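Exercise 4. Each item below gives a protein and its sequence. For each, produce the structure-token representation.

Item: Nucleotidyltransferase (Thiothrix fructosivorans).
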Amino acid sequence: MRNSRDELRYQVAEEAARLIYEEGMRDYRLAKLRAADNLGVRLQGSAQPTNEEVEDAIHQRIQLFDAETQPRLLRQHREVALEAMEFLHAYKPYLTGAALEGTSSSHSAITLYLAADSVEEVMFFLDDQHIPFQTHERLTRLGSKKQEYFPLLRFYADDVEVELMVFPHDERFAGAPISPITGKAMKRADRKKVAALLG
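Answer:
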């Protein structure tokens, strides 16, 4: 049986999961703050759920409310990911994020990690293939190093958003990006593993 503080954590985690899965919020910290605001509570100390608890709540939400349709959408995202990985094979792509974790929703982007000498190299490649894209940056931590911004390119394939995070060759393999959810190295899958997930 949960005490009142545990119950509050659970409720905030559930609402944050809903905001991420159904409304497309991508920042877990902001989702938790908005969830607390929606519930009319203040997050203090141990009343705040961890990012892992929110991720668990997303998996539970899928099982409870979306168990019939989500697997089809997840498969579509993984198929698009594999096509994109084959297209970008020269940059040694890895799949990460919701499509790998199994939590894809209609708001989720497919996230690929690429290794290149420079982001411009990837940009020129996309330009040559007549693929329109947007340029952004994302704050990421590699291994034990401090956080820094890395280039991120966005484009659409089959109406699904694809994010390309571009890392230098040396950084890419020397220190795996750290997950903001678990605090450990991000789970990644190469083309062979993604193909195996699709059977």
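Check: The first strand starts at residue 94 and ends at 96.
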